[in-house]
Amino acid sequence: MRKQQSLPTGSGAVYDIHKMKKQLSLPVSNSEIAAQQAKFQSRKKGDADFITAYELLPEPNPDVELVFFHGLQVDDSIRQYAFWRTWKMKNSEDCWPETLLPEMLTDRSKPPIKARVLSISYEGRMKLMENEDDGDRVDDDVLIAQDLINRLILDSDLKVGQTKGVPVFLVGHDLGGILIKRFVMTLEAQMIGTIVEEEKRKIRSFLENLKSVFFYATPHSGSPAIEKMASQIDEEEANDMLQLMKVLSTETSRINAKFQQYRRGDTHSKVSRFTSHALHAAYETNEGGFSHSVVVPEGSARCDVDSFYSVSANHFGVCQAEGTFSTTVRLLSDRIKQEVWTAKGVRAW
């Protein structure tokens, strides 16, 4: 665990979305990025209306299932890479959920833990293309959540969370964390409202297997830096989900309250339905259009979590692992081991 740090407020920071685009544009000709992209494209599990699921780490008989959600993206030039490149190693293009995580789930005294890892691609661009009309826009978090239910759970292909004793982990970066909350709350509502017994059984199975949610630099109470940057985009071109990133957003507050109420279960219960963990980017961000800014303030990153960690990284680096010692992946792998070994009746430590 990193020590808590006294952080600057970043009130004098400058935000430039045009600079942001220039800094984060990826060289498509880069052979390493192109090779990784081609590999993961071959693992695409089909397109839905609002999302695309990729299997970063296939495993037919997993001990644990993980689903990753990227965050906001600047424009179309980086959108196509976000589902895997958000979670790359700090000094290479290796995607750590595919490479480093399996290594860290191996214990000399216990059988290795087999992980199945999926990642979701969705419309996360801050600014949508000018020629996109309302009929083609897919930046509605409610519709994305419904698509997630259909694709991940109800369809006969992916079937996430359908094996008893196989825990499910959801992992999200900034906006991805808020989408996870919306997804879980939509699941709860559909569980109550559906009259199709088979759908209800699948949703119940997923919710029973959901054991942990990890939030990487998620602004549960909004982000002044992101809100400032969003103000530079014409309203008609702005992603509708930017409303969820506003400071003290009414809709996000409602999502937070319902998520917390569901997670904690019955008021008389001392055990939550699943655990919640937050990783806060403690360092200022000087890339992606941000200048000397802590993109997500500590107070906004803290919201109904069982554990909170300040990581020595900026808003983007918090998702990038350096090695087996990295807090970015160590906290997640430790929690996976604890949940899997508990499910198998093995002493954790």
Task: Describe what is shown at a glance.
The chain has helices spanning about 15-25, 30-40, 75-80, 80-85, 100-105, 140-155, 175-195, 195-210, 225-230, 250-265, 300, 325-345; strands at about 45, 50-55, 65-70, 115-120, 170-175, 210-215, 275-280, 305-310. The protein has about 350 residues and is an alpha/beta fold.
Please tag this protein with its features.
single chain; 349 residues; alpha/beta; Rossmann fold; 8-stranded mixed beta sheet; globular; SERAC1; endoplasmic reticulum; DUF676 domain-containing protein; AB_hydrolase_fold
What does this entry look like structurally?
The protein has helices at residues 17-24, 31-41, 76-79, 82-85, 100-104, 141-154, 175-193, 197-209, 224-230, 250-264, 298-301, 327-344; strands at 44-47, 51-57, 64-69, 115-122, 168-173, 210-216, 275-281, 307-311. The chain is an alpha/beta fold and 349 residues long. The protein has one domain: 3-Layer(aba) Sandwich (Rossmann fold). Helix 7 crosses helix 10. The relative contact order is 0.16.
